[in-house]
């Protein structure tokens, strides 16, 4: 018997006035009952190996969760991506509004072709006018040059005649 059992035995024997055999029987019954309960509890307890296994499983689970959490985006990050996508879609929609259809481009091309033809016709007319004006001016300048050459020739002729008159006079005077 243990010290705890001896104390119980004394209580049953002295305080409750049970006979020796009954006090011993009650102590043994209580001892058996608590022994069964404690052995059942002990069986439910884990061994150190089981604790290590559970500890390692928990570590792996925590590591897996941490890895998954690193891969997960926060609400703020998702909101930022959502806003960026909205802006990109808006930019694309704006660009698409600015794009012209083939029909619109064809209309613009035809209009530009007509404008180019008009400008070309106007330039041809203007060039012809300038050409005829230049030809007239060239002929006027040519006529003036011819007059100037005639006047120069007459002036030279007069100078030669005056020189001859001077030479002849010099010869007679002498």
Q: Please, what is the average pLDDT? A: 85
The largest pleated sheet is described as: none
Instruction: Please give the radius of gyration in angstroms.
Output: 66 Å
Strand content: under 5%
Distance between the termini: 192 Å
The helix-strand sequence is HHHHH
Question: What's the tally of helices?
Answer: 5
Give the overall silhouette.
rod-shaped
| Unreliable sequence segments | none
Count of β-strands: 0
Give the quaternary arrangement of the chains. Answer: single chain
Return the structural class.
Answer: mainly alpha
Helix content: over 70%
How does this structure look, described?
This protein has 174 residues and is mainly alpha-helical. It has 5 helices and no strands. Helix 1 packs antiparallel against helix 2. The model has no long low-confidence stretch (mean pLDDT 85).
Can you describe this structure in just a few lines?
The chain has 174 residues and is mostly helical. The chain is built from 5 helices and no strands.
Helices and strands in order:
Layout: H1 3-15, H2 20-44, H3 48-71, H4 75-98, H5 102-173
Q: Which features would summarize this protein structure in a list?
A:
rod-shaped; mainly alpha; 5 helices; 0% strand; 174 residues
